[in-house]
Amino acid sequence: MLDMKFLRENPDIVKENIKKKFQDRKLPLVDEVIELDEKTRKNQQEADDLRNKKNKISKQIGALMAQGKKEEAEAVKAEVASFSKRLAELEKEKPELDARIREIMLTIPNIIDDSVPIGKDDSENVEVERFGEPVIPDFEIPYHTEIMERLAGIDLDAARKVAGNGFYYLIGDVARLHSSILAYARDFMIGKGFTYCIPPFMIRSDVVTGVMSFDEMEQMMYKIEGEDLYLIGTSEHSMIGRFIDEMLDEETLPLTLTSYSPCFRKEKGAHGIEERGVYRIHQFEKQEMIVVCKPEESMKYFNDLWSYTVELFRSLDIPVRTLECCSGDLADLKVKSIDVEAWSPRQKKYFEVGSCSNLGDAQARRLKIRVKKEDGTKYLAHTLNNTVVAPPRMLIAFLENNLNEDGSVNIPVALRPYMGGQEIIKPVK
């Protein structure tokens, strides 16, 4: 959410930013919110003037009555009553104006960084760098669920009967591999100096609207019937929500946190054949990284965060690349975003396994996360988030890149301590 003062003073910049994001339908909202803001400020000035006048002349009533000037006193009373009536009208109008202004301000996108490439959608995202050499083996790699089935590690049929499409049972060595990757990612981030957290897996609506756009909310979040609670789509939501209405001492920054949680997503819309199995699902687990920092430090941490994901994947022998998200692919709160994509030897292309985002002060403004300097001055914090690892999608990349021709799967050295020293998973079928 933008600062109203900034929008008021820089409407052309805001409109140009909307055009860069190919959201021209929102252009009229800029003029509308400026008009509403002007009306609100005029109403506030009128209300303040009326209160001052009311207080001033109310004092005259008693004096006039004491002097026997009853008619004059009654005239003053009538004038006071007219002031009160107009004040009541203004006070009734204020919540309506404030609500509409907030609604619009929550809809207008954040100002993107100058370095963001301009493009309409994810097809125009820009590759930045590759890490590791993509390998295509000389044997055919099965679909990921077939690999798991040969390892006796998945049961989708039972999951469909129990919960429907988009769910799974992971079993045996595959389930252990899944948990081992999360444990390794947790310790990897602790080794980077991040504090480990397990947050609430449900959040209230004021936190939801504080951390994400309306479009994201509609496409992602599951609402708990009869309660003001939503299942989280990622632990970033509750982790940032932890600081709602907080005044942080500047000396405590940066806050560098890594969190584990299950994630729940609607995943609306039709998906292609490559998004079957455990690629796009309603429930998964994830290790996340979150930073709350000074504005001048946010780009430094942005680059640190995505580089940690690259480092982790390379330690597991998985080639990756980074992809700069173009303007049209950025969610409205984001200033800049980079996706990390893993190599799929079966598809002979990269696919997304994580996303790193700098949200500037957008979440902090919505949630009122402020920072106090030593001299007493205050400002809004910057917030960032990034996926460390999100199995079971990450398992697709892991299994394909570590698969042997006989159907066995190699366990990289870094992961073996979490697998009880196991060096290979052998097929059962």
Task: Explain the overall architecture.
By secondary structure, this protein is of the alpha+beta class. The protein is built from 13 helices and 18 strands. Helices cover 42% and strands 20% of the residues. The strands form five sheets. Strands 1-11-12-13-16-10-9-4 form an eight-stranded mixed β-sheet. A three-stranded antiparallel β-sheet has the order 5-7-6. Helix 3 (27-66) packs antiparallel against helix 4 (70-105) and helix 8 (205-211) packs across helix 10 (235-241). The chain is elongated and about 110 Å long. 36% of the residues are buried. Residues 270-274 have low confidence and may be disordered.
Question: Short summary of the structure?
Answer:
42% of the residues lie in helices and 20% in strands. It is built from 13 helices and 18 strands.
Any descriptors?
single chain, 429 residues, alpha+beta, 8-stranded mixed beta sheet, 3-stranded antiparallel beta sheet, 13 helices, 42% helix, elongated
The termini sit apart by: 54 Å
Low-confidence spans? 270-274
Number of strand segments: 18
Strands in their spatial order, largest beta sheet: 1-11-12-13-16-10-9-4
Overall body shape: elongated
Mean pLDDT: 92
What is the SS-derived class?
Answer: alpha+beta
User: Sheet with the most strands?
Assistant: 8 strands, mixed
Continuous helix count: 13
| Radius of gyration, CA atoms, in whole angstroms | 28 Å
Strand content: 15-25%
User: Helix fraction?
Assistant: 40-55%
